[in-house]
Amino acid sequence: MTTRPASLIALHALASLLIAGCTSGFPLDDPDAGLSPDADPDSVDVGCVGPGCAAPDVSADVDEGKEDRPCEIQLWYPDLDGDGHGDPGAAPQSACEPPAGFSTLADDCDDGDPGAHPGAAELTGDGVDSDCDGLELCFLDADADGIRPAGDTLVMSDDGDCDDPGEAGTASPTGDCNDRDPRSPSAEVCDGIDNDCDGVIDQDAGCPCALRHREGGAYLFCISGRQWAQASADCNAFGYHLAVIDGAEENLWIAAELDRDGTEKAWIGLTDTAQEGVFVWVDGTPLSFSAWSGSNPDGGQGESCVELMGDHGDQGRWNDKECDEGRRFVCEREP
To answer: What's the rounded Cα separation, in Å, for the pair 180 and 203?
Structure first.
């Protein structure tokens, strides 16, 4: 029989106990082992050591640590209109959680209008900067007469409204047939403008000369004898100019109208007074069409102005003539 040292016997016993495992943290055959004589076994939890023991529950410690950490403080701006965008000019509040009626966005340009904020759709001509970009899309009123054309020509306003000259909002009436001139729409007068927007220039306007129309343009056939310069001034006073003829059809039409009135000759708006031999129209247009009679222009002494023949023998032909002679004259206003 082999005799083992006492220390080896004790070590073997301890190893057997650990291999057996535990459920309450105490040796299976002595659950009260390790307690002081005065301890209550039900009130002491020394844990479990060794294989077979459940992992300790640390969730309570984690939650407790989370509560102890500081929150993320943010600035919150009043959002009175509830559009999600705060008023940058109002005093903010500091808080971890959003107070009711506040937003972290400080970019609202009108906190009293829920339809006005960055990203909102811009409505043309309503006078409201809906998207907060500092601009407003307006209708064009080029002549600033308070009446805009029927179309949708637009202009960008840089101050957020449509009240400046040249701008019009949705409330402005439409129907301006000539947005280049503030005289329309209005009562018709003899000024070369379709004032009442009926589509006809100077219709029933009481012009001092016979009024005729062709292809949208207006012509005055004046029978008073005038020198060329005075005839040109009279046309200008009516809002017209001496006739500028750009083709054979217009030329023959004017000649026929002169013949209808019994007019043999009338001034038109062609002259070489600026440079001898270089004829130009009164509106600065260079000569591209001509209907000279015979050897004209013959460059006679002082013959720097042009007359149009209306009689049958030489109807529609041009002749250069002294500018100080008295003639009837034809005024024109293009459409």
So the answer is: 19
